Amino acid sequence: MLAFLSITGILLSVLLLFFNARKNPSTIYLALFFFSISIYCFIQYVMLYSKSELLISIFFLNAGFLTYLIGPTLYLYTRSILTDDSHFRKSDLWHLVPAIVFLAFALPYLFSSWSYKIDIAANIIKNGNYVVTYNSEIFYGIISSLFVFLSRPILTFGYLFWSIVLLIKFYRLRKEYRVLSHQVFVTKWLIVLFSFLAILIISHTIQLIESYAIRNLIVFYITDILQLFSGFGLIGLLISPFFFPIILYGLPQIPQPVNSKISEEHTQTENTNQPSEFEQDYLHIIKQKVETAMTELQPYLQPDCNLAYFAKLVNLPAHHLAYYFREERKQVFNDFRNEWRVNHAKKLIKEGKTSELTLEAIGLISGFSSRNAFFMAFKKVEEISPSAFAAQFIK
Asked: Which domains does the chain have, with CATH numbers?
């Protein structure tokens, strides 16, 4: 059963990545969360139930560092879905420290011979309590085996508590969150996710403490109330996304359109204070903001005008813009921006600026960072070079 649930979790991770990675990058964290917790459960199965020297040799300590990513990936997912910002920042690197520390301590085993690993696996099969002794040897007496066993669930519980705090803050300030203010499914989904994870962590931690106290890891074989709670938490965790197809299949969500600085100053969009009911309504609002910004603010003239820069300018999430350009305009943002730059350069050429400026200078004025970039983009849009186009207007 544990093996089946573990494999199900790994398949769920693949499913989430396949449907959501491009449309909603924050789901990558969720997929990694389910993958790491599935690896943790599979390691438990291998060590306690499989009786396979091959599987124990492969998974004992080799993949253990991945289990320290359960908490960090949960927190990063929660933060990204609540703030609508999935970027992994430099400051987020410290979340990887526990996994790196465990990996560093396990390196001697990782690089040991295969025959040595088989011997360790044989000892574990003969006596499950050998894991406790060997863990103490691996960490050279610096860290107790009890700490090693409890570090993962306790770390995960800490990140769970942190994620709950984020959700509470979001709920209190939800009116200030433009994108998710009307997406009630987000809070419901996170509450379900956190609840099942809490049940799993608490019951599993108590199991670990009990088994370590009596120095008998075989206690995991006993089907008692803790085992039932632990199984209930794991099953609920793995099936919970299926009750939220929006999460599972990446169906696009329509945030509440509000007036940005651009729409307040330059446009009068009808019903902008009312939530959209259809995806096309929201895409139309994005189109209006994009066209207004490009026409009146001319951001394409800035060399550093990329999708992130433009998203801040129009006060829209970058991945919403990416979705708009990919699904609605059928082109990437850079090509869209370059068309505006080329049209600006064409206007200057038609006005006779070539008598005062070189074509390279016109390209730079139009926002291109170099002569080559200008010539390549111009030829891609007009199918002729800038010099050939300029020759048509030489008197």
From this structure: 2-249 (1.20.1070), 261-391 (1.10.10.60)
